[in-house]
């Protein structure tokens, strides 16, 4: 299990003509996560990364900052899906003495929602924080391009 902090990650939606398994060409829009320092760099990196796979007209149709605190990767070759996982962390407010919840979103690679939660739990074993998983949702993210 590998984790990556995501302070400089962007979600790019890329539209291009893709050859289907039956040989036909179809225009598709796919989401990718790109490691970049700016919106401009994210656009350049997704175009460069997708160039070998795109034919015909292609363009970046949307770029936004990734809302994920970290990305959890797995070595499982069958884990080709990315899940958005919302975790609630419970901490004690030292001034008031009350418990407070803080939510964070993570991107977790897995084969299913159960496998994604297992991969997240395995990655969180290093921490001492109490947490609960609030939601796990399959994303449309196709791949992640790291530097």
What's the gist of this structure?
With 147 residues, the chain is of the alpha+beta class. Helices cover 16% and strands 54% of the residues. It has a five-stranded mixed β-sheet with strand order 1-5-7-6-8. The chain has a four-stranded mixed β-sheet with strand order 4-2-3-9.
Tell me the distance between the termini: 19 Å
> Poorly predicted ranges (pLDDT <50, ≥5 residues)?
none
Which shape, going by the Cα principal axes? Answer: elongated
Sheet bearing the most strands, described?
Answer: 5 strands, mixed
Q: Specify the structural class.
A: alpha+beta
Any idea how many domains?
A: 1
Can you give the mean pLDDT? Answer: 91
What does this structure look like?
With 147 residues, this protein is α+β, with helices and mostly antiparallel strands. The protein has one domain (2-145). 16% of the residues lie in helices and 54% in strands. The chain contains two helices and nine strands, in the order E-E-E-H-E-E-E-E-H-E-E. It has helices at residues 39-50, 113-124, and strands at 2-5, 9-19, 25-35, 55-65, 70-73, 81-92, 99-110, 130-138, 141-145. The chain has a five-stranded mixed sheet. A four-stranded mixed sheet has the order 4-2-3-9. The longest helix is centred in the N-terminal third of the chain and has 12 residues, at 39-50. The mean pLDDT is 91.
């Amino acid at each position: 299990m590998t984790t990556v902090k995501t302070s400089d990650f962007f979600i790019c939606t890329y539209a291009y003509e893709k050859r289907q398994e039956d040989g036909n060409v179809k225009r598709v829009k796919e989401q990718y996560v790109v490691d970049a320092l700016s919106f401009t760099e994210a656009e350049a990196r997704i175009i460069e990364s997708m160039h070998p796979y795109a034919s015909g007209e292609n363009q970046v149709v949307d770029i936004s900052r990734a809302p994920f605190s970290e990305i959890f990767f797995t070595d499982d070759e069958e884990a080709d899906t990315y899940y958005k996982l919302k975790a609630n962390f419970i901490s004690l407010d030292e001034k008031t003495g009350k418990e407070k919840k803080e939510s964070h979103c993570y991107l977790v690679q897995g084969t299913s929602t159960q496998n994604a939660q297992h991969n997240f739990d395995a990655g969180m074993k290093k921490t001492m924080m109490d947490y609960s998983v609030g939601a796990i949702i399959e994303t449309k993210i196709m791949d992640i391009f790291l530097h």
